[in-house]
Structures are given as structure tokens and as C-alpha cells.
Fold this sequence. Notes:
The protein is an alpha/beta fold and 178 residues long. The chain has helices spanning 14-21, 44-48, 72-79, 85-93, 130-139, 155-158, 160-177, and strands spanning 6-12, 27-35, 61-62, 67-69, 98-99, 117-122, 144-148. The protein has one domain: Alpha/Beta hydrolase fold, catalytic domain (Rossmann fold), CATH 3.40.50.1820. The strands form two sheets. It has a four-stranded parallel β-sheet with strand order 1-2-6-7, sandwiched between helices. The model has no long low-confidence stretch (mean pLDDT 96). The chain binds 2-acetamido-2-deoxy-beta-D-glucopyranose (NAG). The site of 2-acetamido-2-deoxy-beta-D-glucopyranose (NAG) has 2 residues, from loops. This is AB hydrolase-1 domain-containing protein.
Amino acid sequence: MTPGPVVLVGHSFGGLAITNAGNADNVAALVYISAFAPDDNQSIAELGANFAPLPSAKAFIFDAQGRFWLSHDDFLKYFAPDVPKAQANLMAAVQGPADGARFEWRSGPAAWKKKPSYFLVSEHDQIISPELEAWEAKNIKAVKTVSVPGASHAALVSHPDIVANLIIDAAKAVAAKS
Ligand SMILES: *[C@@H]1O[C@H](CO)[C@@H](O)[C@H](O)[C@H]1NC(C)=O
């Protein structure tokens, strides 16, 4: 089977991943969901530096190894406030720690400069600033930006239809060209 063109989708830090993996020849489009979209050689710390820190920044708990997470209550409050309680409880329980060193990781050449990109802005995101997301969508010259009122950082759980439709739009545009 010949592998067809690929649409990469990244949520949150996944945006850094697709910004780099997207340089592969078979990647035809990028979809950023409430994500970071760094520039060439830019870290996430630098990308966010011009935007006011959110209240959640003070809520993250760090251990001695630099791993971080939110308390159960703060996860519900900041990460998934628009997700049904039972599901948000489950997400909080399995969140796992993230590696704080990632804020300093530098992107390689940014694939969004060469590949058509799509962006979903979560207007009530309390993990990544909605202002940063809206700015990124313009900065990467997104061919389509969907801005979702009331959506939290967990938009892909709370608004799966809107997220899926944006991915389908990207896939249809790729299919029309191939
Ligand atoms: C990446 O940015 C850092 C900090 O500005 C700089 O020291 C480094 O030389 C840059 N690397 C490249 C490959 O441009």
C-alpha cells in the first residue's frame, strides 16, 4: 500500500511535535488544537513570553525532578471546566506528570511555513492563553481558524464535533489536491 498524504493534528504541546514532524514529505497539512505553534528555533517559554501568565500558572505542582501536574480540583477548574464532571474526574485521575524541561525545548524549522495549517482557538482556555492562540493562528497564516466560545483547553473532549470538523476540513482540502 502506498502511504497517502498525512494530516497531523496536535493539541497543546503536541503543537510543538507537529511543527517539527510536519516537515516530513508526506505531511500535507497541520491542525493545531489549542496548541503551541513555535517559530524556527523558538522555545515554548519564548513563544508565550509576550502574553500575561494565566492564574493556572501558579497552580501547577512541580516535583524535585521538574515534573508537573495539577491537583485534582485545579485540573477540574482550569483544564476541563467544560467537560462533564464524571469524565473530567477520570481525566484528572490519569493526567500523569509532564516534564517541565519541555518549556525550554527549541523547535527546529517550523513546518507551518510550508504546509497549510488550521487552528482551533479555545476562547476559555485557562492553560494556554486564548490571546496567544489567536495570535498564533494569525502568525502561522492559518488557512482556517475556528474560535470556540466557552471552550476550555480540553476542547477536543468538550467540543469533539467542532474539532473533528476542522480536521475533516483539512483532510478534504488535502484530498482535493491529491
Ligand atoms: C537558537 O536560539 C538561541 C537563543 O536565542 C541561540 O543561542 C542559538 O544560536 C539559536 N540557534 C540557531 C540554530 O539559530
